[in-house]
Amino acid sequence: MDAFSDLIRGVRAHGSLFGASTLSPPWALHFVDGAPLTLCTVLSGAGWIVPEHRPPEPLRVRETIVVRGPATFTFVDEVGTRAEPIACGEHCATPEEGGTRHRRGWNDPGEDAGGTDAGDAGDGRGATTLIVGAYPVRGEISRRLLDALPVVLRVESGGTADAVLDHLAAEVSVDTPGQQVVLDRLLDWMLVCTLREWFDRPGGEPPAWWAAQRDPVVGDALRLLHAEPAAPWTVAALADHTGVSRSTLAKRFADLVGEPPLTYLTRWRMTLAADLLVERQAATVADIARTVGYSDPFGFSAAFKRVRGINPSEFRRTATTLTGLRN
After folding, report:
1. Contact at 8 Å (CB) between 5 and 191?
2. How many whole angstroms separate alpha carbon 229 and alpha carbon 148?
3. What totals of helices (H) and strands (E) does the chain contain, helices first?
4. First and final C-alpha spacing in the chain
5. Are the beta carbons of 130 and 100 closer than 8 angstroms?
6. Best label site of 53, 101, 160, 264, fewest CB within 10 Å?
7. Exposure letters 87-113 (e unless 16+ CB within 10 A, then b)
8. Bridge-based pairing state of the strands 73-76 and 28-31
9. DSSP 189-257
10. Which residues does 81 contact at the CB level (< 8 Å), separation at least 6?
11. Integer Cα distance of 158 and 164 in angstroms
12. Do 188 and 131 meet the contact criterion of CB atoms below 8 Å apart?
């Protein structure tokens, strides 16, 4: 397991969180839910993403923009549009209610998947087909991914996500059994491709753990720590597995990741433990401690408080209360 796969595994599209609209100007769709991550792309046409308290971002054909919540944003045909904003969210499900057509099976008779003639695509004329995927983010693991992202990121067309867009265009043009599952997985694929390209963009500043995965020594060490976080790792053991000396591994890891390997491991274990404390309500603190590699629950509790600023039992009570309020 690599670091990116671990961090993104709790980010999944699901059911009504997928939306598709074919829009004719003027329009202004205000996405009010403030989802942790929202992916927007257009199969044809063009528009503008206007994030709350941020400058507008043009969204052209086959480009993708990801907006990080909790701030809201609006998709408009042009900056300063005359259209009245229509509030759209998870439950804004039908055109008659003025929102995106959430993908429970819809098709516009007489229109192709693009919604425009080939000559119109990309110049902003005619209809624009918008694809929106709002992603809930579950737990502390995936929040480490959010922390590495800006409020708004964009990826231009021409990359690996283009193949996914071809599949999306084909899928939204028909109604077939199992379609929701296919669309959800396509959106997951789209998000992975988009984030990969954004992290690897020329002149970019990806998080340290992303760049470090490419290093032949530190990348192997990171994969070991993520594959077996509960193992009794030492710097010497990691060095043996990666084929270098302890001093070489320690320096290279700290230089590329920004902290020593065992410090990274402790923080990762506490992130795993934070999610387990909420997900496994019947498990004791000692059970969670053993799961993440601590035979002594007192040592685990001390480490958890040092890293998280709160002891495990208090964290569980607070997180469980907040989860109940959100639900």
Report:
1. no
2. 21
3. 12, 11
4. 31
5. yes
6. 53
7. ebbbebbeeeeebbbbbeeeeeeeeeb
8. antiparallel
9. HHHHHHHHHHHTSTT----HHHHHTTSTTHHHHHHHHHH-TTS---HHHHHHHHTS-HHHHHHHHHHHH
10. 25, 26, 27, 28
11. 11
12. no
SS3 60: coil
Residue 43 corresponds to which amino acid? L
The answer to whether residues 63 and 41 touch, using CB atoms and an 8 Å cutoff, is yes
Task: Tell the residue number behind the tokens 């119109």, with chain if given.
Answer: 120
Residue 133 structure tokens: 């995927």
Q: Are 68 and 191 in contact (CB under 8 A)?
A: no
CB 225 within 8 A of CB 262: no
CA distance 323 to 159: 38
**Distance between CA atoms of 327 and 323, rounded to whole angstroms?**
6
Cα–Cα dist 163/173, whole Å: 16
Long-range contacts, 173-178 (Cβ 8 Å, 24+):
173/107, 173/112, 173/113, 174/107, 175/105, 175/106, 175/107
* pTM listed for this prediction: 0.81
